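job 3f2a | input accepted
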Amino acid sequence: MIELTRYFMTNVLHKVPYLQPFIHKVRIASVEKNKVTYELEIEKDHCNLRGTMHGGMASTLLDSLTACTALSATGSKDKRVLSVEMKTRFISPVKMGETVLLETRVLRTGKTLLFAEMDIVEKVSKRYCLPKWILWRKYRKSYWCKAIILCMFMRRETENRPAQVKGNKQMKMDDYMAAACEK
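job 3f2a | predicted structure (183 res):
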């Protein structure tokens, strides 16, 4: 999986115009099956006017890095994913100069949908920078359902049009999201 992760970082993410100012600063810290941890030192360009990591920056990293991990987990360079739904909440700011671990995981892969999540954790203190409701869930279910991204597989032969999902798509997505959070 490490080879595919490096491939997607170098050949896909590094070529996306809006990621170019910072994506080269993201390092791969560790790779396991269906899990990749990235590392990034927060610099002035990543911050809002208060000197903390901008929420848009965190959301961009969530979208891009979970996609990279999802693509790597498929085991193929020919797959594509498209973000369908993203939920993010923040509980603790990350200050300029701090280093964060961006822990991405693929939760479930179906025929047309894939579920992934990312934790943003301050490296030294291990402080989570995500929702309060997730902290409550930890003690209740001993599972951290953090920022979750729902991706839809793309088929290359259909010129990057999303694969069709039969039935009530929104209901199915909500059910999948709820099930992913409950496990």
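job 3f2a | DSSP finds four helices and six strands in the chain.
job 3f2a | closed
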